[in-house]
Amino acid sequence: MSVTATRTGSDFPRSAAALDRLSGEGRQVSLWWRDDDARSVTPELDRLLGLAKRHALPLALAVIPVGAELALAERLAGEAGVSVLLHGHAHANHASPGEKRAEFGDHRPADVMRGEIVAGKARLEDLFADRFRPVFVPPWNRIGRTARALLAGLGLPTLSVYGAAKDSSDGEPAELNTHLDVMDWRAMRGLTFDAADGRLAALIDGRTGSAAVAEPIGLLTHHLQHDESAWALTDRLLGLLVAHPAVVRDGPALLPISK
Fold this sequence. Notes:
By secondary structure, this protein is an alpha/beta fold. 39% of the residues lie in helices and 16% in strands.
C-alpha cells in the first residue's frame, strides 16, 4: 500500500480496516463522485477540478440549467473524466411553508415540471454535448412520484438522490445514488473526520454482495458550500479511496450515455 494510503488510513481507521477486510476476501467496492450546484466558473470550481485531477478520479458535476454559463462549458472542455448531470431546473423551492424544500416534489402540475425537465436537458445537451449524461439530480435530493414517473419517457433513464437505491418499477428510472455527504448541514461546515470515518466504514461493511451486484458508494460534495474542513476531508477521503486496491473507480461506466 502506498505512503498516501497509509497516511489517510490513519485518518479513517475504521474505513481502512473495512477496506482491508474486503481486499482480504478478494472483493471490491465501486466508488463514484457527484458534486452539486454548478452554474459558472468560480475559484471553488477550479479547486474542485484540481482535486479531481490530482487524485485522477472521475467527477460527475450536477449543473443547474437555468443560469448555466457558456464559460462553464469552455472551462470543462479540457478536463478529462468530468461528466455533466441535469440538476433540476432553477434550483427553486416550490414546497409549501413548513415542508422540506423541493423543486420537483408533488407541488406543481405534471405539464409544468415536464416542460422544465425537457428545457433543462436540451440546455445542457447544447452546452456540454457528449459530456452530458442523462441523469436527473433533483435539488435537495427530493423528488415526488409525479416527476419520477416522467423521467424515463423524457430520455433520463437514471435518477440520482441520496441514500440507498430503491428498486425501480417498470417505466421508472434506475437509481445511482450518493451515500456520504462531506457536509454537516446543521453546522454548515465539513463533517469531522471521525463522523465521516464511521459513516464510510458502515457503507463499506454494508456492501456484502459481490462487486458485480453491490450498490456503488457515492461521495457527495458541494464545492460552493465547502469550508476548509470540508475541503480537507474531501482531499483525505479521496486519498484513502483511490489508493486502496479494494476500491474500483468506475464512475463513467456507471453513467448512461445520451442517445
